[in-house]
Amino acid sequence: MKKFIVILLAALPMLAMAQVPVTINVDAVGKLATELPDSVRFTVADLTVSGPLNGADLKLLQQIVTRTKTNKKNANECLVSSIDLSGATIEEGKDGMKTKASELPDGLFKGAKSLMKAVLPQGLTTIGNSCFEGCESLTDITLPESLIEIGSDAFEDCKSLPSLTLPENLKTIGTNAFEGCKSFTTMTIPAGVRVLEADVFKECSALSSITLPENLTQIGGEAFMDCQVLDNVIIPENVKEIGNSAFKKCTTLANIQMENVEKIGSNAFDGCKNLQAVTLKRISKFGANAFEGCTALTTVTLEGGLDELSEDIFKGCTSLETVSIPNSVKNIANEAFAECKSLSAITLPTGLTKIGSHAFEGCASLKEIGIPNLVKSIGSSAFENCTSLDSIAINGFIEEISSDLFRHCHNLRSINIPNTVRKIGSKAFEECTALANISLPAALTSIGDDAFAKCNSLTNLRVHVAVKEIGSSAFEECAMLSTIELSSALKKIGGSAFSKCASLKEVILNSPAPPTISKSTFKGTAPTFIIPRGSLAVYIAHKDWKNISGYREK
Fold first, then answer.
1. pLDDT averaged over the chain?
2. Residues 178-233 pLDDT 10s
3. What is the DSSP letter of 456?
4. Which of 131, 183, 180 is nearest to 156 (CA)?
5. Any idea of the CA torsion for 190, 205, 294, 211, to the nearest 10 degrees?
6. Using alpha carbons only, how large is the chain's radius of gyration in Å?
7. Judging by beta carbons within 10 Å of its beta carbon (0-12, 13-18, 19+), is residue 490 exposed, middle or buried?
8. What are residue 9's phi and psi, to 5 degrees?
9. CA atoms of 251 and 235, how far apart (whole Å)
10. 51 C-beta neighbours (distance < 10 Å), count
11. Nearest-CA neighbor of 352 among 391, 383, 399, 394?
């Protein structure tokens, strides 16, 4: 026991030495190693260094500060928790590591996991790339007023840093500079910063307030992505562009003022579930998915020279009720308003020429819509599952009713199809159960598979002279269909085209040459087939029609 006490008492001075702050003043570059000999350099927790430093001095500091383990055989060793360089100057040179005057080199203290406090040199102008990256215990850092530039990744993953006062002279903040600083709560960007680079505050999950300078012109991609408690942002009037995913998954963001922004990148506000309103008075370009999944968004006002509403731009905005679109818009791209379940009305711009696939799919509250005169193309499923849609007026010069266009529009009662339409695609009106009458255009040449399947209210049908083909199951299970008149140019009727039409009483055929059919074309029906006078023998002799009964010549 006495031996143990003697050893402990002998060790106490050395343990105390490790905790005493050490101050080193060098009078010339390259002298730090002399002032911090091997016997001392790894026993310091709180280190202050002043005087001129070159690359060799900084290399030594790097070795001391970035250590993550101590030598267990040496009880005096400890890890640096505080470094004060306020009285130091960085000189240009190539010794040890390449240095530039008044700049902290790239990666200088990267991965210094025990470092808790740092005071940087007065007169410092630049913090190099990744300089403090991964300093996960850093809670306090003092930046000099002389600082002009913070490099890329400079403070990335400094998870414990709660705040940082940026000097007023600062002009540049590099990409990813503060990414993953999960303890940041507030930040004010100095007036000299014109551009916020990509990823600069990405995953700053505690950041609730950001003040942006008036002279800011651009916000880079993913700049605030995953800042989950950021709830209010005022975008300065000079900002013209917001980059891709800039505010993606800012799930608490409820208000953002950005009326003068001209360009918004892809996914810029994707997943901002609390964003309520958007007003853009000078918008000229959107990227895809810009506001996708903004489930609280109710009102959108767009003005400016916008040419296109991009793909998925408002997809899944389930609370969206009101949208104002400028007349300059010529294209509404694929899935632009898909699943906007609260959208009950929308006025399409007069300059519109194209509506993309699935553009309004699942807009369950949409009751009526008018397609402007200049529209030449409407993509597949554009209005599929618009279950409240009652009427639609297509005024454009379209040539095709594309596949699934009005599929499952259960309340659709009225539609006018332009005379320019030559083709009705597969499942175009499938399960439009309220559609009682439809006037097919004179230019129509083909009706696709399942085009009108399960249109239970359809009672009469006249297929005009130009139609050459009716697809499989085209009118299957049209339970109220009683009379159909088919064109004289008809060459083929697909399988099950009129099967299970339980009320079918009359099929008027105007072609003296029987169209090809299959055994299932009229399966489950027993109508009278009215055929051209003098054609009975031809029909009875045809391999597809010879087993059909109930003929009557006109």
1. 94
2. 999 999 999 999 999 999 999 999 999 999 999 999 999 999 999 999 999 999 99
3. T
4. 180
5. -20
6. 37
7. buried
8. -65, -35
9. 18
10. 17
11. 394
Answer yes or no: is pLDDT of 300 > 50.
yes
Enter the tokens of residue 164: 């940082």
What pLDDT, on the 0 to 100 scale, is given for residue 19?
55
Residue 475 and residue 311: Cα distance in Å, rounded?
33
Residue 190 makes CB contacts below 8 A (sequence gap 6+) with: 166, 167, 168, 169, 170, 171, 213
Phi, psi for 414 (deg, rounded to 5): -140, 135
CB atoms within 10 A of CB 167: 15
Tokens of 415: 């539609």
Does the pLDDT value for residue 464 go beyond 90? no
Kindly tell me if the per-residue pLDDT of 4 is higher than 70: no
Contact of 258 with 242, CB cutoff 8 Å: yes
pLDDT of residue 20: 75
Please spell the DSSP secondary structure of 477-497, one letter per residue.
Answer: T-TT--EEEE-TT--EE-TTT
Q: What is the pLDDT of residue 209?
A: 95
The answer to whether 211 and 190 have CB atoms below 8 angstroms apart is no
β-strand pairing of 423-424 with 528-531:
unpaired
C-alpha triplet 542, 548, 553: angle, nearest 5°: 80
Each residue of 516-543: pLDDT tens digit? 999 999 999 999 999 999 999 999 999 9
- CA separation (Å) from 37 to 15, 44, 47, 78, 111? 18, 12, 14, 15, 23
- Cβ within 8 Å of residue 488, ≥6 positions away: 465, 510, 511
Tokens describing residue 205: 């999950």
> CA 366, 377, 404, 463 torsion: positive or negative?
positive
Which residue, 436, 397, 394, is CA-closest to 416? 394
Domains of the chain with CATH codes: 14-175 (3.80.10.10)
